[in-house]
Amino acid sequence: MQIHLAKPGGQKHGPYTLEQINRDLAAKKYRDTDYWAWYDGAEAWVPLYSVPGISEVSEARGSAAEAAQPEEVAIEAQLQSSFGAVSGTAVASAPAAIESGREQAAPSSKSQVAAGVPFAALEQIFIFTTGEGPAVMQSAITTGMLQDIVGEDWSTIGEKVPRDVFGRCDIGERLRQEGKVPSSAWRAMSALKPALIQQAREGAYHTCVRTFSMETGGVVAVFLFYRK
């Protein structure tokens, strides 16, 4: 299995074999909480520790994964203040209705979840899910909610707007519980699109943040970046 690694600043490394990474972890060259990973067959970036076969057991995995360096704390503060124009980093949870035993996006929810920004300004979508990447993109609720937020058909959104998916992470759950964007979300987005996040720090983008639940009960968080 070939594994690619990414970390904040857009530093991408690899490919590595599973054996190489486990050797490096055993030698304490880095921790399994330091990187996001993409491996053969994956359709979303996932935390390195969740890759099948990774053997490190991190004693402080939870705190290490979320802990920010001083510079990252400053970045988070700048992002929080610069993202106030659309919905800030305040979290809007999409309303839902229960119908026929499964969760459906409520038809009346459009006005409550819409970003209210012209589609032409949308440059990037990040999607975080507690489940698997392929499942979230195959979900009718996900595509329906993105249509309601953006105000365009899914076929148009999928064709014209780049999107990156992060699987097996609790960003959506933490957004709902804490009411703010965890630093780990900014670090993950910065790992893949450092230039965009840097420009966002400088006030070049509006952002829209929404959370909702899928048919399976998994929690999804979407971040939409609109050029000012």
Can you put this structure into words, describing what you see?
The chain has two domains: 2-60, Dna Ligase, domain 1; 70-227, no CATH class. Helix content is 36%, strand content 26%. The chain has helices at residues 18-26, 61-66, 70-82, 110-113, 133-138, 140-150, 154-160, 171-178, 183-192, 194-201, and strands at 2-7, 11-17, 36-39, 46-47, 92-93, 96-99, 102-105, 122-129, 163-166, 205-213, 219-227. It has a five-stranded mixed β-sheet, with helices on both faces. The chain has a four-stranded antiparallel β-sheet with strand order 2-1-3-4. A hairpin with a 5-residue loop joins β10 (205-213) and β11. It is globular. The N and C termini lie far apart (41 Å). Residues 58-91 and 95-109 have low confidence and may be disordered.
Short description:
The chain has 228 residues and is of the alpha+beta class.
Cα-atom radius of gyration: 18 Å
Sequence of secondary-structure elements: EEHEEHHEEEHEHHHEHHHEE
Structural class: alpha+beta
Number of helical segments with 4 or more residues: 10
Beta-strand segment tally? 11
- Please give the oligomerization state of what you see: single chain
- Note the beta-strand portion: 25-35%
Q: Helix content range of the residues, please?
A: 25-40%
Strand order of the largest sheet: 5-10-11-8-9
Estimate the mean pLDDT confidence: 76
Instruction: Return the domain count.
Output: 2
How is the main sheet built? 5 strands, mixed
Termini, distance in Å?
Answer: 41 Å
List low-pLDDT spans: 58-91, 95-109
Instruction: Label the overall shape.
Output: globular
